[in-house]
Amino acid sequence: MYEFAPVLGSTVDRGIRPVLRFVHVTLGLSPDQVTWAAFWLSAAAAAVFATGRVIPALVLMGVGQVLDALDGGIAREFDLVSAAGHRLDTGLDRASEIAIFLGCAIGGLVSFRLAALASVAVLLLTTIVDRSKLDPGMKRFALYFGIRLPYPLIFTIIFVVNLAAYVVGLLIIDCRFQRDMDALGGDLNTVASRAARLGTP
Questions:
Q1: Residue 118 contacts residue 162 (beta carbons within 8 Å)
Q2: CA-to-CA distance for 193 and 158, rounded, in angstroms?
Q3: Are 63 and 41 within 8 A, CB to CB?
Q4: Tens-digit pLDDT string for the chain (201 aa)
């Protein structure tokens, strides 16, 4: 959850260390098990959203997000961080969001078109976020504002923010690539030719 703000992650981990120890040591839950528990709570929230009951759905979603914050903390605290765990967390996060968006559409809170557009924007951003290090986090959290704001507006914001972050992320990646090319002293063809020559016996 805090891959893009490690200092914040470390600070939060210190603050909730007793909770992390309770979940991992006392209850014996691994980070992956906590990740799955967070997913199933989110799936339950999606099912409740599909019935149109917003407040109970938001409560379930909130508990799921609390658990989702704990899995990474446990992994960092007990030196259990792994690429596989990161992939599982990311995959289930996206599955949770899409399920919740679909639940909102089934429940009549938003059109299927807007729910699909928001899902596509979130998935597009996910494809580059590990390289761009840019993630505004405007996904499930925005749904809490549904208590005060209409859900079509919220889903429009989710779509616009994530799509804009995707475009900006592509620009960041391109700028970094160009900077690396400049540091090597040439354009892509020059660098490729130089690499080819180095590989020739």
A1: yes
A2: 43
A3: yes
A4: 444 455 455 666 777 888 999 999 999 999 999 999 999 999 999 999 999 999 999 999 999 999 998 998 999 899 999 999 999 999 999 999 999 999 999 999 999 999 999 999 999 999 999 999 999 887 888 999 988 999 999 999 999 999 999 999 999 999 998 888 877 765 555 555 555 555 544
- How many angstroms separate the CA atoms of 88 and 2, rounded? 15
pTM: 0.83
Cβ atoms of 40 and 68 within 8 Å: the answer is no
The answer to whether 100 and 106 are in contact (CB under 8 A) is no
* Chain segment 88-101, per-residue pLDDT in tens: 999 999 999 999 99
191 contacts 184 by C-beta, under 8 angstroms: yes
d(CA 38, CA 117): 24
Q: Compute the distance between CA of residue 97 and CA of residue 150 in angstroms, rounded to an integer.
A: 18
Which two three-digit tokens encode residue 87? 């992939």
Please give the structure tokens belonging to residue 189. 């063809």
Is there a contact between 161 and 118 (Cβ–Cβ < 8 Å)? no
DSSP H helix total and E strand total for the chain: 8, 0
Structure token digits, residue 28: 């014996």
Tokens of 142: 């925005």
Check: CB of residue 120 under 8 Å from CB of residue 166: no
